[in-house]
Write a structure and sequence with these properties.
Length: about 90
């Protein structure tokens, strides 16, 4: 079965722990999800077609730039949430 997926979700969640582990902020589930939501709202969407979890797009050529953008955006989102946590 084919699905459409926002590839940036995978990038954000794959890098979130690495970014947050280097910061002294709350890492509860609510704060983590708020950080992810803010980051994803500030990143461009990259929709790809998948089948059983396999990517069928050539996004790998842009992967390093996606990762840099995601790490920067996650960091900014974490600082914002840390200043005003909603938990």
């Amino acid at each position: 079965m084919l699905e459409i997926k926002n590839y940036m979700e995978e990038v954000v969640f794959n890098h979130m722990d690495k970014v947050l582990n280097n910061m002294e902020i709350c890492k509860c589930e609510k704060c983590r999800m708020d950080i992810a939501a803010i980051a994803l709202n500030n990143l461009p969407t990259k929709y790809v077609v998948t089948q059983k979890g396999e990517l069928y797009s050539k996004v790998s050529t842009l992967l390093s730039q996606f990762e840099v953008d995601a790490i920067t955006t996650i960091t900014k989102a974490a600082i914002k949430i840390n200043e005003n946590p909603q938990h």
